[in-house]
Amino acid sequence: MALAVFVLIGLIGYELAKGARASMHQFGWHFLVSTDWDPVNDVYGALPYIFGTLVSSILALIIAVPISVGTAVYLTELAPHWLRQPLIMFIELLAAIPSVILGFWGFFVMVPWLHKYLAPSLEKTLGFLPFFKGHNYGPCMLAAGVILAIMIVPIITSVSREILRSVPGLQREAAYALGATRWEVTRIAVLSYAKKGIFGAIILGLGRALGETMAVTMVIGNSPYIGSSLFKPAQTLASIIANEFNEAPPVGLYVSALFELGLVLLGVTVLVNIFAQLLLKTFAGPSVKPQP
Amino acid sequence: MTAPNHKWRKFKSGFMQVIAFGCAILVLLPLVLVFEHTISQGFSSINWDFFTKLPKAVGETGGGMANAIVGTFILIGEAALVGVPIGVLGGVYLSEYGGSRLNWWIRFAADVLNGVPSITWGIVVYALLVVPMHGPSALAGGIVLGMMMVPLIMRTTEEVLQLVPGGYREASLALGITKWQTIVQIVLRTALKGIVTGVLLAVARVAGETAPLLFTAFGNLGWTHSLKEPVAAMPLVIFNYAISPYEDWHRVAWAGAFVLLMLMLTINISVRFLTRDRFSRIQAEVIKRHPNN
User: What domains does chain B contain, in order, with CATH numbers?
Assistant: First the structure.
């Protein structure tokens, strides 16, 4: 039964590769750098979607990482003990919200708010940056980044919290004994000790963000885009599959190209996840042992 | 003696503490906003019809999602039939049998499998089952969710079994009880609550999934009479209604979102309720500590 995991992995790889064969044969490596997506003429390329996936996920990390690490520090180092459990429970609850509900809320509450308040003020104050140029018409890359950030904050927070908790208490006491303030203890003795583990947590969050589908599909606007403005609608690998897979005829180049997008997505997320697991495993190795 | 920059360092420390506190508040903000909006929009749209009636066509008011509620439970049931036996037995193997080298690889594979995007699962099962069966079906929808549960349950079961003290096993084996009997009677029984917790959390995870169902369960406007027919599911209906332009459908979707959210809340609370005593609280903690949960 345990070997089922290998069967499942083999199955995923095999089915995707089989589905994508026609498209791989037709377009070769050019598929990855081409910006065409034209079902009428049967020409396909993945670049705008790869771009959308990477940019929305990186944006999510930029927003989520400081908040998550800050929260993890608060939870392990600063918060009064009675407050810790309730806070952790609420963060677990945030992780339990189904992504379709988050997308629904994002589309009807967050996107209008972004459009009305955040985007105009960003345009006014930081409009000289290429990221905030142009006009916002609602669903956009920025919205996708924010919604993804909300989704990955719980995982980065809880994994980082575990990492911080495994930092030996002696480490902190030694820093206090040298006269360090609370922040200095956290920065020098705790955070720098836990660097590698926290990095692993961040990469794990990245893996989640790359593959997230429903919430992103609902707020990103679904139109292929490569450019610097975050106010423009874009599209990701996952969202185009969700949008167009049912429209494609069951045989032919169109569906095959969608399978190849799935294969690209799988490849990227699996690599990112392996990297994260290795980081976490090498960090967690010694700390699993009970501390004296 | 005080260093000249002592005040500045104190200030910086206090400042960073405030920032960390602010981060914690910021994390809770979306939770509060989403709950507030879903409850205020959804609760008012809920009535008896919602639970008992089929969806109405565009333009007609009223109607519910009785078929989607039933569909979600059908899918969860099927998923559990696939995911629980394979997951639990796999977890038993990882914890009780197997060489450490092979087990490292199995664990690693399970963790990687947990990171496979849900939409990818959807198209894989589409190719595997929907194409050969000439159409989407409740069977395909249940199996895709079941497959997603396997690595989740396998890892949580293993973690929980590891907590059972080795002395229990040794005592049982010393009495001449076979290894398999020991596992069933002693190890699994001791860890039962923890295993159930892991299963419940896995159910909660897949019950809210939409992406893998788009091409497998597909959705259905009426009742599903056999597992070979497409089936409606709450997350699917919420998605389809949410992206529709009709005000009335949005209302039904909010009601659906409310019910789904309450379902998640119920599972989470029952996990807490189940794990009140000390040993199972430790089990739950170990389960939740795992990065995949």
Answer: 48-289 (1.10.3720.10)
**How many other C-beta atoms are found inside a 10 Å radius of the C-beta of residue A263?**
23
- The ipTM (two decimal places) reads 0.91
Residue A106's contacts (CB-CB under 8 Å, 6 or more residues apart) are: A143, A146, A147, A215, A218, A219
- Give the span between the Cα atoms of B38 and B264, in whole angstroms: 13
Predicted local confidence at residue A3, as pLDDT: 86
Give me the residues paired with residue A44 across strands.
A37
The answer to whether B42 and B257 have CB atoms below 8 angstroms apart is: yes
Q: What is the tens place of the pLDDT at every residue in B101-148?
A: 899 999 999 999 999 999 999 999 999 999 999 999 999 999 999 999
Q: Alpha helices of chain A — where are they, by DSSP H?
A: 4-27, 30-33, 47-73, 81-96, 99-105, 111-113, 119-126, 141-165, 169-177, 182-184, 192-211, 214-219, 237-244, 253-287
Burial B199-238 (b: 16+ CB within 10 A, else e): bbbbbbbbbbbbbbbbbbbbbbeeebeeeebbbbbbbbbb
Class of domain A50-239+273-286: mainly alpha
Phi, psi of B132 (to 5 degrees): -65, -30
* pLDDT, tens digit (0-9, with 9 covering 90-100), for B210-244: 999 999 998 988 898 888 999 999 999 999 999 98
Q: What is the pLDDT of residues A25-34, one digit of tens each?
A: 999 999 999 9
Residue A235 near chain B (CB below 8 Å): no
Residue A139 sits at the chain B interface (C-beta within 8 Å): no
pTM here?
0.93
A20 and B CB contact within 8 Å:
no
User: Which residues of A are less than 8 Å from B290 in CB distance?
Assistant: none
Partner residue facing B235 (CB), from A91, A100, A218: A100
Q: A198: how many CB neighbours lie within 10 A of its CB? A: 24
HSE value, Cβ hemisphere, 13 Å, CA-based, for A154: 24
The gap between the terminal CA atoms of chain B, to the nearest Å, is 50
Q: In whole angstroms, how large is the CA radius of gyration of chain A?
A: 22
**B33 burial via Cβ count (<10 Å: 0-12, 13-18, 19+):** middle
The residue ranges of every structural domain in chain A are 50-239+273-286
User: Which residues of chain B neighbour A247 with C-beta distances below 8 Å?
Assistant: none
- Judged by average pLDDT, the poorest of A141-145, A189-193, A200-204, B233-237 is A189-193
Chain A CB contacts of B34 below 8 Å: 97, 101-102, 105
Minimal CA separation from B43 to chain A, in Å: 15
Nearest CA in chain B to A162: B289
Please judge whether A155 and B291 are an interchain contact, meaning their C-beta atoms are less than 8 angstroms apart: yes
How many residues are listed for chain A in this entry? 292
Contacts of A250 in chain B (CB under 8 A): 131
